[in-house]
Structures are given as structure tokens and as C-alpha cells.
Sequence to fold (180 residues):
Amino acid sequence: MDAQTCILTRRSVRKFTDEPVSRELLEKVVALAAYAPSWKNTQISRYLAIEDPAVQNTIAEEYCLAGANNPNIIKGAPLLVAQTFVKDRCGYNRDGTFTTDREDGWQYYDCGIAAQTFCLAAHDLGLGTVIMGVFDRKRLQAYLEIPQDQELMALIAVGHPAEVGPAPKRKDVDVLLSWR
Ligand SMILES: Cc1cc2nc3c(=O)[nH]c(=O)nc-3n(C[C@H](O)[C@H](O)[C@H](O)COP(=O)(O)O)c2cc1C
Fold:
């Protein structure tokens, strides 16, 4: 698939078939996501693959928040990936001070780029994904026993698409782009 087609046809997929996602396929996705640009090539993004339906059910039942259909998405996905990041690297100088007034905000920026690269790679390999931000982050981080030097960023449901919705409307270029 060429890059433009991949960008234009990737959708957030919220319904998946029962077909499992092989470890080999997920490894390919992560190997491609590793090529995302990152602050000083710090590559802080990590991926915890959750393939135990009991754990997914617990996350769906006990760690989601109102405002999204995430419990059903998580229960219906063959695989759930928790994206985490290694703290205190991205946005920092070697002596531990911040490089810019964005302070540690760059770590979220890098995670976003990595997540989109992950989703585009998955799409190219025939998988559907949806990034989810609506969950009880601190409690879920404890339940998943995320290491102390990492922080939970996002959940990404992964599977073979059963249903792909239309693209939500995008803003026009004249709204997005200005010139000086
Ligand atoms: C940071 C972030 C958080 C999101 N959180 C959720 C979520 O909790 N639940 C959900 O169903 N979709 C979530 N989405 C998916 C967006 O709703 C979706 O990307 C947007 O509507 C555009 O649709 P598209 O991805 O098909 O182009 C999230 C997307 C991003 C980037």
C-alpha cells in the first residue's frame, strides 16, 4: 500500500473478527512503529500486549470511564495493547533539566507519533486499530503493574476489522494551514 492510501484509508476500527492476531504480526507492527521519529532518538514508547481475555474483561469492566464505548471495544478485540513510555528522558537534557519550556510535554508528543506510526503499520498489514484515551489511567497503571520508570499513555485495540466506518469529516486545508 502506498503512503497516501495508507493515510487516507486508515480508520479507527471498533469491531473486530474473532481471528487472533499472531505474535509474529504484532512484532512486525512494533518493528515498524520503532521507525517513528522521537526526541533525540530517545524512543521512549513501549507496548504491552494483553492477549488474556480475562484481563481484557477486567479492564473493560473496572477501568474504563464514561464517555466512550471502550468497554465493548476492549471486550471484542482479540488483542489490547497498552502503550507506555519511559519517563524522564524525552524533553530532558543529560543533567536532568528540561531542554525547552515545553518541559516534559514532549514525551506525550513522541507517544502520539509512535501510536500513529503503529496504527498506520498495522493498517498496512491488514489489521484494524483504535487508540483509546478514555480510561482510569492511574488505577489501570497499578493493575497492569507498569514498571515505576514508565507511565501508561494509551490503550490500542488491535484485530482484524469486522466493520470499518466512514471517515469522519476533516477540516479543509484553508482552516488548517496559514502562511506568513
Ligand atoms: C488520543 C486519542 C484518544 C482517543 N480516544 C478514543 C477513545 O477513548 N475511544 C474511541 O472509541 N476512540 C478514541 N479515539 C479515536 C478517535 O475518535 C478517532 O481517531 C477520530 O474520531 C477520527 O476517526 P478516524 O481515526 O477513523 O480517522 C482516540 C483518538 C486519539 C488520537
User: Anything to note?
Assistant: Residues 128 and 159 are 5 Å apart (CA to CA). The two ends are 35 Å apart (CA to CA).
